[in-house]
Specification:
The protein contains 6 helices and 10 strands; from the N terminus they run E-H-E-E-E-H-H-E-E-H-E-E-E-H-H-E. By secondary structure, the chain is of the alpha+beta class. The strands form 2 sheets. It has a 5-stranded antiparallel beta sheet with strand order 2-4-1-5-8. The longest helix has 17 residues. The chain is globular and about 45 Å long.
Length: 224
């Protein structure tokens, strides 16, 4: 499959601070002029840490149709000037993430993707859940996914990134994980209908408890 058949995502997670909030706003403005589609640019106060132990952070998520556009933005002089204000923050990470193919995953049809889910028209801004982690017990994690994938699809949500193979490129900071996923929700409420549901809290979470470690950030995307 040609690389142009898959999006790339620039993901920034900046520890809670005034400088981080400012940088996320600046990066979003630069990305819009560099051929990137800014999906979300949320100050730390607007980012929910759904999983216990998830660090408070400002988050920026930008989609690119071509990887070289992402690289050009990251290496640009304007970006470097803005980044200088935050680059020494402990816990700051910047990732280049492979997205799922636009044609979906024929070899894994159970994973909801843009090819298998038609999101409802209209409504407010979409919302994004960023999942990072490691699995210690693959059999239990597979059973966990068997529970949640139909739940996600039933809410007209889907994954835009679902990387389990170490395909994430760390541009800055430390990334101690192997799993990276981005799920896209029709709106903020839909994400909470999933996360707060009895089935997720009392069936899915116990299934994966002790089988892995995860951080989960959740924020509303930009309108349009």
């Amino acid at each position: 499959m040609n690389a142009s058949d898959c999006p790339r995502f620039l993901y920034v997670e900046a520890p809670q601070s005034a400088a981080a909030d400012t940088y996320v706003e600046q990066l979003a403005a630069l990305a819009a002029d560099a051929g990137g589609r800014v999906l979300g640019a949320a100050p730390a106060a607007a980012v929910e840490c759904l999983e216990a132990g998830t660090p408070a952070a400002a988050c920026c998520l930008i989609q690119f149709g071509e990887r070289h556009r992402l690289t050009e933005l990251w290496c640009s002089e304007a970006q470097r000037r803005a980044f200088a204000a935050v680059e020494n923050l402990a816990g700051l990470r910047v990732l280049d993430v492979p997205g799922l193919p636009y044609v979906g995953l024929p070899e894994a049809p159970a994973i909801p993707s843009i090819a298998s889910v038609t999101p409802p028209a209209g409504g407010g801004p979409r919302a994004y859940m960023i999942i990072q982690g490691n699995a210690f017990d693959q059999a239990r994690m597979d059973a966990y996914r068997d529970i949640i994938l139909p739940m996600i699809k039933a809410l007209d949500a889907y994954y835009v990134a679902f990387d389990l193979d170490g395909g994430v490129d760390t541009l800055h900071g430390n990334w101690p994980y192997r799993i990276f996923a981005i799920s896209r929700w029709p709106d903020y409420r839909a994400g909470h209908r999933f996360w707060d549901s009895d089935r997720y809290q009392n069936t899915a979470i116990p299934q994966r408890r002790g089988a892995g470690e995860f951080s989960v950030h959740f924020f509303a995307g930009l309108a349009g």
